[in-house]
Amino acid sequence: MNCKTVSEMLHGYLDRQLDLRSMLAIETHLSDCDSCRQEWRALSKLNATLKQGITYHRAPEGLRQRLKLAIEPPRTNPKWFGGLFYMQNFGQPLAGLALLLLGFALGWQYQPAKRESRQTDELLAAHVRSLQADHLTDVASSDQHTVKPWFNGKLDFAPQVLDFTAQGFPLVGGRLDYLDSKPVSALIYRRRQHLINVFVRPESQEPKVAESNVERQGFHVLNFSAKGMDYSLVSDLNPQELQELELLLKQPPN
Amino acid sequence: MFKQTQTERFNQIAMPHLDAAYNLAKWLTRNPQDAEDMVQESFMKALRYFEGFRGDDGRAWLLTIVRNTCYSWLEAKKSCPTVFFDEDEDSLETQMLASSTASLTVNPEQHLMQSQDKALLSTAIEALPLEFREVLILRELEDFSYQQIADIIGAPIGTVMSRLSRARSLLRRWLANDVSPDYTLESAP
After folding, report:
1. CA separation for the pair A33, B145 (Å, rounded)
2. Above 60 in pLDDT, residue A78?
3. Residue A41 near chain B (CB below 8 Å)
4. B143 vs A237: CB contact, 8 Å cut-off?
C-alpha cells in the first residue's frame, strides 16, 4: 500500500469504517512511514477537536411540549385513559408513567415472547422512559461518593459506583429503577452527548440470556456479568465505545 | 386486552430522537426558529408515514425525514448556498492537501483546543457547503456509520467518504489560518 492510497483511506481508518484487511494494511504502513504517521496524528487531533468542539443543539423545551400536544391532542370528552394523557401534558408525568407501566405489564402478559427478548424490551423501555419523563436521575452528581451512598437502604445490594471522566465517560448520576419487578440501580454516564444507562443488579441464578449485544430501534444493549453483578448497558452510542465502558466497569477499583 | 396504539409506538420510537432531529435541523438551516419549524413539520410527516415504518432504526429513519424536509425548504427558499466544488475535480483536492500539509507545523488543532473557541468552529462549520456540513454532523455528532449516512442522504458510500474528508480538510485549513471562513470560501477557485 503506497502513501497516496493510504492518504485517501485515512479518514475511513480514523472512523473505523474500513474492512479489517484495509485497517491492518494501513496500520502496518503507518508504523513504517513517518510522513503518513504525522498526517494521521494531525487528523486524529482535528477529529478530537471536532468531536468535543462542535455544539450539539438540544431541542428547546417549548418545541417538545408543542410536539407532545400535536401528537396526542387533549380530548374534549376524555375516556379515562385519555384523561390520564391529558393530565400528563399538564405536568403530571407520574400518571402517564403508571399508565405506561400498566401498558407494558399487560402487553407482556399477552405476549408469549422469549425471556431474553422480553428482557431487552424491558431494558429499552426503561432507557427510553428515563429520557422521556424527565426523570433521568434521582441523584444527579458526578461525584461517586455522593451517588453510591444514595443507594444505601434503597437496595439490598451495593453497586460499585465509579466516575470515568478521565476516560471520557463522566458519571451523570444514579436512579432507582425496576427490572423484572425487582428494584435495580441505574447509573447514568455520558459520552459526548450520548447518555448511557447502566443497569446493575445481583447476578441472576438462572441461565444467562443469549443476547449479549443487541441493536434495536437505534439503541444498543450490552449485557455482561462482572464481580457478582449483572450489568446491562443501554444507549444510542455505537457498540465499540459501549464496549470501552464495559472494560472500564470490569476493571477492579484502584 | 390492552393494545399498544400507534401513538404510543411513535412516542417510543421517534420522540427519544427529538434532540438529534433538532440538532440536524439547526445545523442545516442555521437558524433556531427555522429549525423548530422544520422539526415540527418533520414530526408531522413522520407520524403520517409511521404506519409504513418497518425498520428498527428510528433515529436514522427520523433524521432522513428531517434532512429531506430541510432540503425541500432550503431549495424553495433558494437560500441554500450553491456548491461550487466539483466532486470529481482533482485540482482543489491537491490544493487543499498542499495547504493543509503546510499548516501542520503550526499545530492548528492544539491552538483551537487551547482557545476553546467553539464560536469560531461553529462559524467555520456554518460556512461549509450544505452537502459537506450534513455528512460532518451525521458523522461527528451522531456517530452514524458511512453506510447509514449514505442511506440517509441517498448517495453512494464513496461520496460520503469524499465529502467527509473534504469537510475536514476545509475546516482544518480554516482553523489553521485562523481567517474568516467566508474569506477562504470566496478565495477558493
Report:
1. 28
2. no
3. no
4. yes
Buried b (16+ CB within 10 A) or exposed e, A215-234: ebbbbbbbbbebeebbbbbb
pLDDT in tens, B69-111: 999 999 888 654 544 444 444 444 444 444 443 333 334 454 4
pTM above 0.80, yes or no: no
Q: Which residue has the cell 401528537?
A: A71
Top-ranked range on mean pLDDT: pick from B3-17, B105-119, B156-170? B156-170
Q: Is A126 helix (H, G, I), strand (E, B) or coil?
A: helix
Confidence of residue A90 (pLDDT cuts 50, 70, 90): low
Q: Please give the angle made by the CA atoms of A146, A149 and A150, to the nearest 5 degrees.
A: 80
Contacts of B51 by beta carbon, 8 Å cutoff, 6+ apart:
B6
Give me the residue label for grid cell 451525521: B138
What is the 3 state secondary structure string of chain B? Answer: CCCCCHHHHHHHHCHHHHHHHHHHHHHHHCCHHHHHHHHHHHHHHHHHHHHHCCCCCHHHHHHHHHHHHHHHHHHHHCCCCCCCCCCCCHHHHHHHHHHHHHHHHHCHHHHHHHHCCHHHHHHHHHCCCHHHHHHHHHHHCCCCCHHHHHHHHCCCHHHHHHHHHHHHHHHHHHHHHCCCHHHHHHHCC
Q: Is A57–B97 a contact, with Cβ atoms under 8 angstroms apart?
A: no
Q: Are B18 and A42 in contact (CB under 8 A)?
A: no
A134: left (phi over 0), alpha (psi -120 to 50) or beta: left
Instruction: Report how far residue B96's alpha carbon sits from residue B102's, in angstroms, rounded to the nearest whole number.
Output: 10
Question: Residue A135, SS3?
Answer: coil
- Which chain A residue shows the shortest CA-CA distance from B25? A57
Site from A8, A9, A13, A15 to mutate, B interface, most B CB atoms within 10 angstroms? A15
Find, among B62, B79, B48, the residue nearest to B15 by Cα.
B62
Look at chain B and count its residues: 189
* Dihedral over alpha carbons A87, A90, A94, A95 (to 10 degrees): 0
Do the beta carbons of residue A126 and residue A234 sit within 8 Å?
Answer: yes
Inspect the interface and report whether the beta carbons of A56 and B10 lie closer than 8 Å. Answer: no
